[in-house]
Design goal:
mainly alpha; two-stranded antiparallel ribbon; globular
């Protein structure tokens, strides 16, 4: 007998095998480097043109002004992002109120209540929503959702409005929440479920009191990824929300606290950051002008927001990840 604790070397050591493995490793490393270089190139492009823009327009004016009018033929040029941020937040928050609870409850059903045969049918059907072109969602919101809401709940609703666009963005992001959350719930060991049943817990109590807390890192990650997807959505809001940067009226509430009436943003047209970028890119502005460079400043803003959201997702996943 021997006291050696070294693991046996099970790898093949022939020259041809080493050459093949080295080739595979080099190919995979090249793919990783291409991905990294692409990200670096995007950052460099956005940053270089954004710095040119901020040399002409102070960053304080860009972040605090409430008027957005980059078209030189429309009067004075103003580059305030506040109205665009309000439109983006309106769409993102409303879409989150639709996608997050519906997606989570759908994931609980697929993971804990659905039979294997039902899950094999329902999950692919649900994920089809993620494959539908976003312009179709926008057309559906404009032609069907807006008239239905206008005829029933909101007669004063504008033809182009944030509410119908937000509802469609929320429906579009449901598969992202449900699929990632269901995968996280399915990864929870059955021993935890059986322990709960052994203590007399019902299926609902096991689902909400054991499975969901045990998979909270994956669920939180799906939330942040879905919100990031909603922030960057373009075609739905272009078609259904319009392309008019509009600052809603700021009202005075209790104790002088200012607030914005949700109806002023949800039922009227507006503009998000992505729509502003599309409007500039699709116009007749030439490169080297301040309005053209404003597109890169908007892109840099979106990039920073998305990067923060993804970093936050990784932190949450690492902080609350359970290892079994």
């Amino acid at each position: 007998m021997t006291d050696s604790t070294e693991s046996p070397d099970l790898q093949r050591r022939s020259g041809l095998t080493r050459l093949k493995e080295g080739t595979y490793g080099g190919f995979f490393a090249a793919c990783a480097v291409i991905t990294l270089l692409t990200t670096v190139a995007i950052i460099a492009t956005l940053l270089s043109d954004a710095l040119v823009f901020f040399a002409e327009v102070p960053i304080t004016e860009f972040l605090t002004s409430t008027s957005w009018s980059p078209n030189p033929r429309g009067g004075g040029q103003t580059f305030g992002i506040v109205a665009l941020v309000i439109g983006t937040l309106t769409v993102t928050i409303t879409a989150g109120l639709v996608a997050l609870p519906v997606g989570t409850l759908t994931a609980i059903y697929l993971s804990e209540y659905a039979t294997p045969s039902a899950r094999s049918i329902l999950k692919p059907l649900l994920e089809i929503l993620a494959g539908i072109p976003t312009v179709v969602y926008g057309y559906f919101a404009l032609v069907y959702v807006t008239p239905a809401l206008k005829a029933t709940l909101f007669p004063e609703m504008s033809t182009f409005n944030a509410l119908s666009a937000s509802l469609m963005v929320g429906i579009m992001t449901i598969p992202m929440v449900s699929s990632i959350s269901e995968d996280a719930m399915s990864a929870v060991p059955d021993d935890l479920r059986q322990a709960g049943y052994g203590l007399g817990a019902t299926k609902f109590e096991v689902s909400t009191g054991i499975v969901v807390p045990a998979s909270i890192s994956g669920i939180a990650s799906s939330y942040i990824l879905a919100v990031s997807r909603a922030i960057g959505e373009t075609m739905i809001v272009v078609v259904a929300m319009g392309a008019q940067a509009r600052m809603p009226a700021v009202q005075e509430g209790l104790f002088g606290v200012p607030f914005i009436n949700p109806a002023d943003t949800l039922l009227q047209s507006g503009m998000t950051i992505t729509v502003a970028m599309v409007q500039i890119a699709g116009g007749d502005l030439t490169g080297g002008t301040t309005p053209y460079d404003a597109m890169f400043a908007l892109g840099l803003t979106l990039f920073v927001v998305t990067l923060v959201m993804n970093v936050l997702s990784d932190i949450i996943a690492q902080r609350y990840r359970e290892e079994y």
